Each structure stands twice: as C-alpha cells, then as structure tokens.
Amino acid sequence: MHRIIPLILTLLIVQVVGVRIQPRIVGGVKTSIRSYPYQVSISADGNHICGGVIIRVRTILTAGHCVHRRRPSSITIRAGSDLRTSGGTVITAKSYRIHPRFNRKTLNFDLAMIYLEKPLPFNSQIKAIPINMQRLRSKRKAVATGWGTTSERGQLSNVLRSTQVNILSFRQCKRVYRSALGSSMFCAGRMGGGKDTCQGDSGGPLVIQGRIAGVTSVGSGCGQRGYPGIYTRLPILKRWVIRNTRS
C-alpha cells in the first residue's frame, strides 16, 4: 500500500504549484539494518504500508496517516531486518495514538505513536534513537531510510535503502508549496531533484547526526526537480512526543 495523500491536499497543491501529488528512496543505496537499527517496517493486514522509528522498547513513532482509522490488531511491525518481508522480529500493535491536531485533509501534524503488545528485544539490530530537540537549520545534511519505491509508480524495495538529503529553509519550502505547507512541516531534499523519499517511505525517519529530526510525510512526486519532500518537524512537537512515549 502506498503513502496516503488525501484528495483535498492533492487538489490544493495542483492549484498552487501545478504538479500532481504522489504518495511519498529515490537516488539512494542499499544498506544494512545494523547501520539504522531504529528503522522498522509497518504492515497492515500483512502488507507493508509505511516505515516507523523505534523510540522506546514498546513505542514506535510514525506518520498519523499511516494508522488513521486502522484497527490496532491489523497492524504489525518488523524490526531488526534488512528485508521488508522476512527476518527480524514481528510484533503486533496493542494500540496507537495520533497527534490531536492531525488533519487528514492537509496532513498537518502528521504524527502518531504505535504501542506494541510486547517489548522489542533490543540488540545490535534493534535499537531506539534519540529525538533531536534543537531547531532545524537549513543546509544541514540528513539521512532518510525506508523500503519505499525507487521511482514513481515503481515497486517497493525488499531491501532497506538510504539516501542523503539537505534540510531546506522554511522560506524555500514555502515558495514551492505555498499555502499547502502547514506549521508542523518542513522540507528536505535537493532542489535539483534525484534524491528523495517515495511511496512506502511514509512514517520513516529523517536523521541528523544520530538523532531523528523529522518523519516522512508527503511530497510532489519522487525526486522531481524543484519539489523536495515534506516531513513532520519533531523539535516543535517534542512535548507531545515525550508525554506520549511509553517504556
């Protein structure tokens, strides 16, 4: 299943920037879960839908649209494997909590916590990642990971992939997405295109120097010139994240 892009948001960005929105690793490389042990695959009814991030032994951070209106019992996470469909540890969700200001039409505050039925067995391939609490600065390099498609309308990758992108200023991002850019959003990518997240990467991490700074949310196409990806900004939501994290 691909990253969900509500129709109203699609129409809004078509009107604003004239480009059809795609559900949102392009230009990346295959990598090992040992390098990114906090990354998990999230499935619903046995099918990969999104990425997620381990922040505690029973808590997974992801995008709100990934779990919106889903039965918790239909959701599982796979941790500790390079592969999307096999290996590692699979655990079912017990419940989840979506940010109270999440807007399914605009994807503002696109954030959720998944609480697992049992704790993850932490080891060299399954670890939590700390949250970046500092203000995001433009031009900083960040790493995005996931099992999403490597091109628009392509197939999901079965092997974990990573790509390096740049944090863009809010002003740069606003020039592209205009009124579609919400207060909880920021952009990362390369204005020249070629490196981006894509379908199936939603909910996954954007990491700066070993700390998660953003959660993959939405974007216009995948790796298109002039249209960076949009992420949920964690530093401004840190109080909600900390308050709703369970051991």
TrEMBL record:
One of its GO terms (molecular function) is serine-type endopeptidase activity. Residues 25-246 form the Peptidase S1 domain. SMART domains: Tryp_SPc. Keywords: Disulfide bond, Hydrolase, Protease, Secreted, Serine protease, Signal. Residues 1-18 form the signal peptide. The keyword Secreted applies. One of its GO terms (cellular component) is extracellular region. The keyword Hydrolase applies. Transmembrane segments: none annotated. Its main location: secreted. One of its GO terms (biological process) is proteolysis. It is found in: Secreted. This is Peptidase S1 domain-containing protein. It comes from Hermetia illucens. The lineage of its organism: Eukaryota, Metazoa, Ecdysozoa, Arthropoda, Hexapoda.
